[in-house]
Amino acid sequence: MQSISFAYRQLNALILGKPQQIKLALVCLLAGGHLLIEDVPGVGKTTLAHALARVLGLDYRRVQFTSDMLPADMLGVSVFRPDEGRFEFQRGPVFSQLLLADEINRASPKVQSALLEAMEERQVSMDGHTHALPQPFFVIATQNPDGQLGTFPLPESQLDRFLMRISLGYPAPESERALLLAGDRRQALADLPAVLDGATLLALQQKAAAITVTPALADYVLALVQATRKRDLFIQGLSPRAGLAVLAAARGWALLDGRNHVLPDDVKAVFVAVAAHRLSSRLPGMDGREAARRLLDHVALA
Length: 302
What we know:
It is a single chain. The chain has helices at 2-14, 19-30, 45-56, 71-75, 109-114, 116-121, 156-160, 173-182, 186-190, 198-209, 215-227, 240-256, 264-275, 288-298; strands at 34-38, 60-64, 76-81, 86-91, 98-102, 123-126, 129-132, 138-143, 162-166, 234-236, 280-281. With 302 residues, it is α/β, with parallel strands linked by helices. It folds into two domains: 1-209, 3-Layer(aba) Sandwich (Rossmann fold); 210-302, Magnesium chelatase subunit I, C-Terminal domain (Helicase, Ruva Protein, domain 3). It has a five-stranded parallel sheet with strand order 2-5-8-1-9. A two-stranded antiparallel ribbon has the order 3-4. The chain is globular. The mean pLDDT is 88.
């Protein structure tokens, strides 16, 4: 636990004024999930993704998603070896412990869909063969807000593969002033030490998965999920998989706080990040985040 706490402090020293978002990012990875960071350009999305990769001590690859990208650019391609009379699979950048998918929504839906199997099954199927991905395996993706020039909305099936979606937002004035005085963060990023490794992270994930959830706490999550299935309020409610994701994230939050049981406050801390990108409100002017916050206000703990 000391290593993950040290990683949290290291990230806070680099990404100024965003302790809540950094904690959510670490919780997402402790829960074994993929992370989507959405915001306008220039607020530190890619810096946070790089910083997470470095402190976790994992083998990682960064891919800049573009409109002319092909699935093979990410997954790999079979190359014919005429001297051996056979095809050899050349692995793409997805075969890493951590894939940094930068500006994922600039790629076409065909490329986005190519990630589905990798994110869900931790494997890639190519030419009739299945290739296992390294363990652990994460996707940390950044995206610009929908509607910006050259972006493609992520399909619901792709969004659902991300355990969490977070936004950094503009920094508070005091944090931005400190950033201006400190200058370019790229050198600080390059000097960021690795404080974890793959084996340690897998052990922490197993520890998080074993954290106790009481029946009353499970009933609270169930009530939140069922409240989203009211057809007059939501176009589409949360699935059972979303409920499991809320509990997995709440366990990760409890572990980071040094507890062996989940509290209702843990669920409240992670619920918006887990649920908002899966919700579509029927009420005009209400996005998924606001809808998730209102659910927390109106659904009582039994």
